[in-house]
Prior knowledge:
Blueprint: H1 3-40, H2 42-47, H3 49-71, H4 80-89, H5 96-101, H6 111-120, H7 136-161, H8 174-196, H9 241-247, H10 266-269
Amino acid sequence: MTPDDRYRSWVEKIERIWQETTSVFWNRKLFRAVSRMYETNPVLREQGGHVWTWIVGTYGRDAVMAVRRELDNQAGVINLVHLLYEMEKHAHVLTRGRYRAFFSSLAWFPPKQIDEQFQRLGGPTGPGADSDSIAPEAIKKDREQLQAATRKVFDYAQRLVAHRTPVGEVPLTIAEVDEALKALFDCLRKYYVLLTGTSLATATPVPQFDWLEPFRLAWITRSFGIQRTNQRKNPVSANSELGQNIYNGNQFGTKRSNPRGAPRILWLLSGAKRWSDTRR
Length: 280
């Protein structure tokens, strides 16, 4: 494979990784919105504990498997870790000349800043020759940092989601999943700009439509057809012991308790003190 062919294959791979990563962060946006609904609606908290269990479990499994997908060492798969290994092995392909080419139509852009950016991405100090390349040691360091930052979520996915391991042996919280996703995006953002010349401002897509409109609608209509149950009290509510465990994150294996009483809202799981802290 020629250096140009290898470079093009890396661009194709990172574009695919980026597209799938945005889906994960979009799901997180929806999940946080629903958690806000539970936070601000006491009736929903009281009657909808079983729905919350389903929602948080679905999102949690999706999020940890997304992390696992980018860290899986299985041969023949396309993911971020495999891409980093490839670039580390063939770092000579990532030259200063290729990076400078992104700015060829921007005659006003200071060459000094281009060289400084290339240096921050792992290249040698500029100004230098077009043949200068990213140091493989820099890529290795980024890969190892990514693997360290996501190891707990990756192990959880391996042992509890992809396979069956007793829950108590692998505790995990939403906050830890968030930190793993952040580490994943930070690494992806760095190599995306190196390979494409385009900066990624945020991981979460910005919707061009009223994405909350479905939540303002009544979901059950007369034609729904399923009869109402005779059971009036939901056994899984924010006030029940099971409900307290659900909102405390115990469905992810954590035994953490809230000294202030029964936590009923997701932003406690994310480590934030206010709902606004979760919107990143």
